[in-house]
Amino acid sequence: KFVDYLPRHQRENGFQEITQEEAQKAAGYAAETAWRETDKATYQAMEALVHNLNTMNSRAGAQVPFSSLNYGTDTSEQGRMVIRNLLLATEAGLGDGETPIFPVQIFKVKEGVNYNEGDPNYDLFKLAMRVSAKRLFPNFSFLDAPFNLQYYKPGDYDTEVAYMGCRTRVMGNVHDPKREVTCGRGNLSFTSINLPRIGIEAEKDIQRFYEILDERIDLCIEQLLHRFKIQCSKKAYNYPFLMGQGVWIDSEKLDRYDSVAEVLKHGTLSVGFIGLAETLVALTGKHHGESEESYKLGYEIVSHMRKRMDDKSQETGLNFTLLATPAEGLSGRFVRIDQKKYGKIPGVTDREYYTNSFHVPVYYPISAFEKIKKEAPFHALTNAGHISYVELDGDVCKNIDAFESVIRCMKEAGIGYGSVNHPVDRDPVCGYNGIIDDVCPRCGRHAGEGVPLEKLQELRKKYHDVPDYSCLIR
What we know:
By secondary structure, the protein is α/β, with parallel strands linked by helices. It is 43% helix and 11% strand. It has 14 helices and 12 strands. α9 (276-284) crosses α10 (292-316). The model has no long low-confidence stretch (mean pLDDT 93).
């Protein structure tokens, strides 16, 4: 239309007439320029987003928001532009090239969308792995895992499972099975069980272990229902953003003084657990990474907990779910309490932490692929959230193929959500990012040493991420 319009416009307004071919070139130039400028503006917008989420201390008045972004499956040109520029802004880092901590980024992997060569977003999947190899984010979620795929409807992003932070997942909906979606819902509360303590108390008696475990689960359910009752006693005006802005499902139907009880029923109530490995050592003498017998028992324990949650969901019509607890603080707190009561029991309470959820202990020598295969079945049981980590040594940026092999192993094994951890060293003086042993590979300094400003100025001519110290030179 523009090509037809331009010659007519020139002629009708007394300008020099142009040919159809010239109009075609002008249209192409305009489109190319507009796209380039839009792409540049999008990069700046993504850069601003990352910087703002790492600097705005609006959480509890003193912390940055714990934010998460799930992306990777939008195949529109506009969506691809946003995804690409968010990844590039993350790769560039913050001021002086520092690695951004937030938002937690999760790249959604899906066959037919981005997993295989020829998929429309395959290039973005490759870029995501490159960025993660340098910046630790994005993590990767796998929509083809059976427990995620069961909800997936092509073209409906609301049916694509999204993870929050380091594992939380909300999808199934017993309260309203027709709305098993991601958006407009959340986790209402979760309480975690100290499994190693139960293992110690059971004194290697498996039947006694299950008796105590059921008592703890009953206590957790009672506490969750009590908290839920308090939450339901609130009115819509108590939640001006979640309810007042129509964020939660059906909240737009609420008047200011309406109860939020029916709306909150779309949320989840979760029981979590920590220290499966130490529990198995207390019960059998070995954890699930080193003994097949212990592995089977561990799987039975977690399966039992999941069944209790499913049964309670059917009984109450509420979404009771099982969480593989993150336990960033709890892992240390629980073991300190148990050390005071039981002393240091080898393999159980003799470290400064309990192992995260169902993970194979980090100190146990095991290959990345074997670890993934052992942990994958537990992802299907923990419907409130889960994650598996793989620790890699060395500079992963120099071996992206190895990084990709780990991600693909996770996908094929049935992992729901996975992450690859690796060393990310940074020299604050010269801005070098990578593996640093005793000496910085870029500026040659040891820890605690300085570098002449003249040398830094020379390095700045070669590397764009060297901090600018010109203001210090007189």
